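From the pipeline queue, job 12 of 40. The input is one protein chain; the requested action is below.

Action: predict structure.
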Amino acid sequence: MEFPTTSTTFRRWAVRRIAWDRGRRGSVFIAYVRTLAVILFLPWRAGRRLVVPDHWPRCVRWAVVHIGLAIFFCALLANGRHTLQWLTERVSPSSFDPPHLEFPGDASAERVLVWFSQSFAAWAIALLYSVGLGSLLSVSIPGRHRAAKLGGVKWGLYLSSLFIVMLAAWYGYYVLNPPQAQATLPASFTWTLPTPGPPAKLLAGAYGVWWAAGMAANPYNRARTLRTFLGFALLYAGSWAIMAWVLFPAGALEALL
C-alpha cells in the first residue's frame, strides 16, 4: 500500500507505549508499577497504548507469570482451603480447632497433594479460558482492522495481572471484615483460614469489564463510544457464560462457578 493512503480501513498513529512495553524500561520495578497502575485505573488509556502488535515475548512473559501465580494462589487459598489447613495443622496443631469447618485432620500428604492438584487444574481451566476467550473474540470479530485484532490479543494478555489484584482485594476484604464464622478462631488465624475463595464469576466478570474498556479504546476501531464498550462487554459475558454453563454443566469447574 502506498502512502499517503485514503483507505478507510488503514489508520496510523504515534503511540506512547505503556512502561513495560517500551524498548527501554529503565527500572524494572517502576516500569511494573506504572504498567499495573495504568491497566487497573486507566484501562482505556492502556488499551490505546497497547495498540501496536509487537514485543510479544515480554507480553507473553507478563501473562505467564501473572496467570501462573493466580492459579497457584487460587488452588492454595480457595476451594475448601484443604492445602492451607493441612499445612497450618502441621505448624501449630494445638491452635487450630475450627468447629464450623469439616476437615479430616489425619489426611495424608498424598491426599492433600491430590486435592491441591485438582483445584490447580480446575482454576487453570477457568483462568486460562477467561484470557483465551478475550484473544479468540478479538481475532474472530469480523470487520476490524488486523492491527486492532492483534492489539486486542496483546491487551488481553497484559490484563492477566488483574487476577492477582482481584485476589488480593478479595482476601484483603476478609482480613479487614472477617465473617461471623471466624469468631471462634484465634485472632492469629483469622487472616489465613476460613475465608471463602473468590468465585470464578467475579474474576471473569472483572476481566471482561476491563477487557471491554481496552477493546473499545483501541484507535483502530471505527467507533470508540459507550455503545462500543457495552457491546464488547456483553459479547464477552455471553461467551463466557456459554462455556461455563453449557459446555461444563458439571465437573471440576462446578465448585468454582
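Job complete. The first helix runs from residue 28 to 41.
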